[in-house]
Amino acid sequence: MKLRTYLQGTALALVAALPAYAQDSTVTVVLSEELDILDPCESSRSNVGRVVLQNITETMTELDPDEGLMPRLATEWEDMGDGTWRFHLREGVKFHDGSALDAEDVAHTLVRIKSEDIVCEIGAKFFGGIDLTTEVVDDTTIDITADPAQPILPLLMSTVTITPAEAPLDGHMEEPMGTGPYVFDEYRRGQDITLSSNPDYWGETPEVTGATYVFRTDSAVRAAMVQTGEADIAPNIALQDATNPDTDFSYSNSETVYTRLDTTMAPLDDVRVRQALNHAVDREAFIGTILADGTELATGMTPPSTIGYNKDLQPYAYDPDKAKALIEEAKADGVPVDTEITVVGRINNFANVLETMEALTSMWREVGFNVDLQMVEVAEWLEHYSKPFPEDRGPEMVQAMHDNANGDPVFSMYFKYASEGLQSGVQDPKLDDMIAEATAATGDERAEDWSEVFSYIHEQAFDVMLFHMVGFSRVNERLDFTPSIKTNSELQLEQISFN
Amino acid sequence: MKQFLGKRAVASAVSLLGLVVLVFFLSRLTGDPTDLYLPVDASVESREQFRELHGLNDPLVMQFVNYLGDLVRFDFGESIRRNEPAIDAVLRGFSWTLTLAVITMGLVTVCAITFGALAAFNVGGRFDRFATFVSLIGASAPDFWIAIVAIVLFSVNLGWLPTSGTGTVWHWVLPVAVLFIRPFGLILQVVRGSMISALQSAYVKTARAKGVGNRPIIFVHALRNAMLPVITVIGDQAAALLNGAVVVETIFGFPGVGKLMIDSILQRDFTVILAAIMVTAFAIFLMNILIDIAYAILDPRIRY
Q1: A124 chain-B contacts, CB cut-off 8 A
Q2: Span B264-293, mean pLDDT?
Q3: ipTM
Q4: Of A420, B41, B162, B249, which is least packed with CB atoms within 10 Å of its CB?
Q5: Are A110 and A144 in contact (CB under 8 A)?
Q6: What are chain A's domains?
Q7: CA-wise closest residue to A413 among A428, A399, A398
Q8: What's the CA gap between A179 and A198, in Å, rounded?
Q9: Which residue ranges form the domains of chain B, and what is each CATH number?
Q10: A70 touching B, CB under 8 A?
Q11: B252 touches chain A (CB under 8 A)
């Protein structure tokens, strides 16, 4: 009898311990990797951003892909000239520890992202080579000066997560903290991260009252978790797992795939050879076959929603005969078109990257190029992609995927095309001037200048521009949420509501 | 016995030191963690700053001497990527893996010995053929495939079990079941083979002649003598599990030391690689000593 009672008790306990499926007003998000670090100054990393950015820690300004730059912690800003911008902070905003947000916190944040004793990705990625100085005017007004002057400083501020003045300058924060609509509760390493809503939030109270983030490396498992109701959102699943039109969304993920040409070296220094490489590629043939439906043909390095993206440009038409004719023409002028060109691809860069690179290589061979494909791991790939380039290299074409969801080409153009750019294969003083001019311009003139930069790069065929990629998300039907270009870098819980 | 344990401890310590030297230099041969930590477009200054902060600019030999100096004080260093000491991450992962390994190997041992012994009792019989068939399939099926199929079947289609993760008893069912299959198949075969020879031995015939029943013959007379090779294989299989059940941990999102080790290798997080290897190596040395002791208990002829 005793044994029976015990067994019944155990059975009841086991039933009670059945997985608590996602329910009511909290959501569960399944990310593709465990987070190493949760410091807000690392929130430019995709998965850190999806937890921290605008949920826990907010930025001064915020880029809306449709509306442009919007106020967040700053209500307005003005250009004071000489590289200085004045920002007016929102009043009555409090950090999660109860202290009020003031100009000192902003000043401290800007020091911290460039601190010598920690490496913060936001500082390394967006403020490399830029010196920032601040002057606190009053509690809610701050002047920020950038050297060299940054005409898009307000846009740059949309990347900076504002942390309190107590945040350490010599180490990462143990627990992320900010002014956002959600408070960090707990990180059970290897298991989950939990957030709950911030009762003192300055903005509207969101519908979602809390969130749990879990980590699964396998895409099929992430998709299955949303299907079974164990999770509500899988921001990133593989093409082959996106099989249910009711729950699966494809979205332009701000990644652009291209092949960087080393234009300083023959035969790639000849524009006809570069154009021939472009005409040899049947871009349409990739879409819906080895790349997902919805992938767009690219004519520029940044997504089409970026300021100044030149929508008049047409991708190079697939024309093998023209490619052959261009090669012949160059050959007649003594260009060594038969030189072997190494194509460097990056293993696991995106789904089907190997198939994509093999197809490209065979298309180039088809028109007569002598190309050799090498697929390498990221570290070796970086040696080819970033300067300093190897001294004893031959002519190279390096496949890469570039992400710019920040709305302005400035985050891409200097690095990728200027003579001094870290990943640039171009040495063209005219282009250097054009980039410098566009970088310094404001308003409509800025858009026009960038548009000309896109057009010049396209004419000169400085690279083989390929595709704007798409990502896939699975979203539980109980949620009203549509993934967008920003889902690649953030997941704002306050934008989610329930059906 | 004491002397034996002392000798083993010294030998283990020497091996461990050799391992540290080997792993320290081999892992650094793979390249610079800076490139993997910082984004592609990070500035040259940021890269330099990162190297300086993590002592990656020092000569290799000096890095090694510093590392050994810290190690003597049981300081395994800070993880380059994680905001915590390397040993914390490793011990946390190892405790999950150890639990998983103990549960799985406990079940495997009991089941494989029982079924193997019964199969050997009537060689060629229906039960033997069934057990052999099942164990061969188990020992040859790839575990990632079994894991995914198990999730699709039991979680997605039937809805009986959670797909992955931790939290309740039910979360353990699929990972343990998937890990169970291969060692079960292997050990069952070893038990069966070893039992067949034991059952043909002279002392079993004598026992039979005296009229001893089947059950005592299998479980008392033959099994104990058949156990020596079985213990060796159990030890091997347990060591494999302690190293981390990488595939299972990855698919089921189980925060064990195997996945941690793979991630730290891919990210060149040197301190975590070293700490993980030392902790698992220590556990395996410990287990080998236990196995040696088990030999002595099972076979009175073995004396250390």
Answers
A1: 38-39, 42-43, 46
A2: 88
A3: 0.85
A4: A420
A5: yes
A6: 3-32+181-247+476-498 (3.40.190.10), 61-159 (3.90.76.10), 252-470 (3.10.105.10)
A7: A428
A8: 9
A9: 86-303 (1.10.3720.10)
A10: no
A11: yes
